């Protein structure tokens, strides 16, 4: 199912004098999600992700704007008529019901011509359970399951009704690191095999990048960028997006463009022919450095971290925004790093510059 958001806005009423205008949790969002996509909705805590999901599900009403499902305006439809499957961070399973009863629960309240027989419900529950590989646990209670298994039950319950859209709100945050990795692959697999348009909310950029067809980056309720993970990583539209994606994070510096060159301090690091003189923020990915003793860009080595295939040179630079600059280079270069200074060439395709005054990306 295709999802379209038009000028979608949600303002929570203010509860104190300090927020006299209310909290703008979603601010004039316009976006289109193609059918069958797994979309990662990514942003820091408090940026409006859950609000967005609640608007999509119908649990909350927007202050303004529209939501279209396959072109139909669903903005005023109640949740039960939207065909949404919801999975929350806390799973929200019924503790006194078995796994099977939890999964069939959304089917129980169908009335009239939609009413299902016990056999129909059981076979639908089994189908959903098989998809998430918990069919052997049907008679257990949630308290007798691991966190990962509980999460699978929650997903089975969300997909048993064959929703048109699956909405997952930080579904992995209660799992330990290994299970998080496993479960995110699982979600990818389930999404692929069902083809259900899915919105996966997370504040973890690596999680979003690793499984999404498309990522939507938001900040303070405002859409920052939409694109395929690699595109957004390679071509961040602004400094926030550049910094939010990537581990280790991008290195940022105060810089300026002068006479067709990009400078950090006195050091000319790249050619920037055709760009007008201005102050910029420079963002260089950790993999954007190459040791070259003849180069101008000079950092002071703090330490070298060996990571096997690569090494990470942790250094300092006067104009770096962060205390430390992280560069990742092939381990064959480990002998080129000595105490004191290290000189780098900077790769242009791993460097982005943003105007200081407008935060606008400058292509060069
Ligand atoms: P996220 O899920 O990205 O952490 P939320 O959508 O939960 O963000 O919240 C977005 C903003 O809206 C936050 O500033 C939050 O404090 C505020 N907010 C969320 N729910 C309510 C509510 N029911 N009433 C008032 N403000 C709210
Ligand atoms: Mg949230």
CATH 2nd-level architecture of the largest domain: 3-Layer(aba) Sandwich
Tally of distinct domains: 2
**Oligomerization state:** single chain
Query: Helix and strand string, N-terminal first?
Result: EEEHEEEHHHEHEHEEHHEEEEEEEEEEE
Identify the bound ligands: adenosine-5'-diphosphate, magnesium ion
Describe the structure.
This protein starts with a strand and ends with a strand. A six-stranded mixed beta sheet has the order 6-7-8-3-9-10, with helices on both faces. The chain has a six-stranded antiparallel beta sheet with strand order 13-12-11-14-20-21. It is built from eight helices and 21 strands. The protein has two domains: 3-244, Rossmann fold, CATH 3.40.50.300; 251-362, no CATH class. With 364 residues, it is an alpha+beta fold. Residues 12, 23, 25, 43, 45-51 line the site of adenosine-5'-diphosphate (ADP).
Topology:
Elements: E1 3-12, E2 23-33, E3 38-42, H1 49-57, E4 64-69, E5 72-73, E6 84-87, H2 99-108, H3 118-131, H4 147-159, E7 165-169, H5 177-194, E8 197-202, H6 205-211, E9 214-219, E10 222-227, H7 229-234, H8 239-244, E11 251-258, E12 261-264, E13 267-271, E14 278-284, E15 289-291, E16 297-306, E17 310-316, E18 325-330, E19 341-346, E20 351-355, E21 361-362
Parallel strand pairs: 3-8, 3-9, 6-7, 7-8
Antiparallel strand pairs: 1-2, 1-4, 4-5, 9-10, 11-12, 11-14, 12-13, 14-20, 15-19, 16-17, 16-19, 17-18, 20-21
Helix pairs in contact: 2-3, 2-4, 3-4
The structure holds adenosine-5'-diphosphate and magnesium ion (MG).
Magnesium ion binds at residues 49-50, 169.
């Amino acid at each position: 199912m295709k999802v379209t958001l038009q000028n979608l806005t949600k303002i929570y009423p203010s509860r104190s004098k300090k927020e006299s205008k209310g909290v703008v949790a979603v601010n004039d969002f316009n976006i289109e999600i193609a059918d069958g996509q797994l979309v990662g909705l990514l942003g820091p805590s408090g940026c409006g992700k859950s609000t967005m999901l609640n608007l999509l599900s119908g649990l909350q009403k927007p202050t303004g704007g529209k939501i279209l499902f396959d072109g139909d305006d669903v903005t005023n439809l109640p949740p039960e008529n939207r065909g949404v499957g919801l999975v929350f961070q806390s799973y929200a399973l019924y503790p006194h019901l078995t796994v099977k009863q939890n999964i069939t629960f959304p089917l129980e309240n169908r009335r009239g011509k939609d009413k299902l027989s016990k056999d129909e419900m059981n076979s639908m529950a089994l189908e959903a359970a098989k998809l998430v590989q918990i069919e052997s646990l049907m008679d257990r209670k949630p308290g007798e399951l691991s966190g990962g298994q509980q999460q699978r039950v929650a997903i089975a319950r969300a997909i048993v009704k064959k929703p048109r859209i699956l909405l997952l709100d930080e579904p992995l945050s209660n799992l330990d690191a290994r299970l998080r990795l496993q479960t995110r692959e699982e979600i990818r697999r389930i999404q692929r095999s069902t083809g259900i348009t899915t919105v996966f909310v997370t504040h973890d950029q690596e999680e979003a990048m690793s499984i999404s067809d498309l990522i939507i980056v938001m900040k303070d309720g405002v859409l920052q960028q939409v694109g395929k993970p690699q595109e957004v990583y390679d071509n961040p539209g602004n400094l926030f997006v550049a910094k939010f994606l990537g581990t280790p994070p991008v290195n940022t510096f105060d810089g300026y463009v002068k006479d067709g060159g990009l400078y950090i301090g006195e050091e000319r690091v790249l050619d920037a022919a055709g760009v007008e003189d201005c102050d910029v923020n420079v963002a260089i990915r950790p993999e954007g450095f190459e040791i070259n003793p003849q180069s101008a860009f000079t950092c002071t080595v703090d330490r070298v971290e060996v990571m096997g295939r690569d090494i990470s040179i942790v250094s300092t630079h006067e104009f770096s925004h962060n205390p430390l600059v992280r560069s990742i280079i092939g381990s064959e270069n480990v002998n080129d790093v000595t105490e004191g200074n290290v000189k780098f060439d900077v790769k242009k395709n791993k460097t982005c510059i943003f105007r200081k005054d407008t935060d606008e990306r400058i292509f060069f």
